[in-house]
Structure formats: C-alpha cells, structure tokens
C-alpha cells in the first residue's frame, strides 16, 4: 500500500531527491516550502515523471501560529497521511553568533518551527498508532 508523505522544505535539493524517491514508489505527496512558484514546478515534474498525486502549499517554519491550520489542511487533503520529511533549515551568518536577533531567527526556524509542526505530526501518528518522521540535517551548519 502506498504512503502519503508530507515534505517540508521541499524546494531544497535533498528534499527534491527524497520526493522523487517516494514518488517512484507510487506514494502521494504534499510538498511545502516558502517558494510557491518553485513548488508548482516541482509538483508538475513529479506528477509527469511518476504519475502520482502531488499537492503543494506555502509553509513557513517561523510562522508557528499558522502550523495548526496548515496541518489540518494536510490531513483534509490526504486522509491517509502516513509520514513527514523535515528538510528545512536556516543557516544564518557569522553575525548570529554576536547578535541575539540574528541568532533568534536561527533558533525559531530550526528548533521552534520544527518542534511546532512535528508536534502536530507526532500526536497524529500516536493517535493513529502508525506513521513516520524523518528529519534531515546538514553538516553545512558546522563552521568549526
């Protein structure tokens, strides 16, 4: 039986490759990121290449006040929702090490935003007694 997978941060290269791998298995996808034009292109390409259902929507990890409504929309669109891939992140710059506001953006995107949306997913999967969460991280953030 095919899965229905949500991919957050779907415009990154690794997320695109992950989406293609799920689509090649015949899984339905819901892709989300902050770039709607790119989401449209990716969705059209996945549909054409793999013949799967692909939905897309804007998602901003930092806008945690929108996460509950976003999650409800995903569930309404894909009632057989079975997994999420988190592939978003914000690296920031060296100023973030010296400036709280710059550092706060990194924390909000990479921790608070992830914890917020994944809490909805985890609670849903716990209630369903099935589901998976995949988190993708990058060593690019290790600046030494």
Short structural summary:
The protein is of the alpha/beta class. It is built from 4 helices and 5 strands, in the order βαβαβαβαβ.
Structure in words:
The protein has helices spanning 13-24, 36-50, 67-77, 100-128; strands at 4-8, 28-33, 54-58, 83-86, 132-135. It is built from 4 helices and 5 strands. Strand 2, helix 2 and strand 3 (54-58) form a beta-alpha-beta unit. It is an alpha/beta fold and 144 residues long. The protein has a 5-stranded parallel β-sheet with strand order 3-2-1-4-5, with helices on both faces.
Strand order of the largest sheet: 3-2-1-4-5
**What is the CATH architecture term?**
3-Layer(aba) Sandwich
* Uncertain ranges: none
Please outline the major beta sheet: 5 strands, parallel
Helix percent reads 40-55%
The CATH first-level class comes to: Alpha Beta
Mean pLDDT, rounded to whole units? 93
* Amino- and carboxy-terminal Cα gap: 44 Å
What is the 3D form? Answer: globular
Enumerate how many helices there are, as a single number: 4
Number of domains: 1
The helix-and-strand class reads alpha/beta
CATH fold-level name: Rossmann fold
């Amino acid at each position: 039986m095919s899965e229905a997978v949500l991919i957050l941060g779907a415009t990154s290269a690794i997320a695109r490759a992950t989406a293609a791998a799920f689509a090649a298995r015949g899984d339905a996808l819901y892709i989300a990121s902050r770039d709607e034009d790119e989401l449209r292109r990716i969705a059209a390409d996945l549909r054409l290449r793999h013949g799967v259902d692909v939905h897309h929507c804007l998602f901003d990890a930092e806008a945690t006040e929108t996460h509950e409504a976003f999650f409800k929309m995903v569930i309404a669109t894909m009632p057989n929702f079975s997994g999420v891939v988190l592939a978003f992140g914000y690296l920031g710059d060296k100023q973030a090490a010296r400036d709280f506001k710059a550092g706060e953006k990194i924390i909000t995107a990479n921790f608070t935003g992830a914890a917020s949306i994944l809490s909805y997913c985890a609670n849903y999967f716990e209630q369903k007694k099935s589901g998976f969460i995949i988190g993708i991280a990058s060593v690019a953030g290790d600046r030494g």
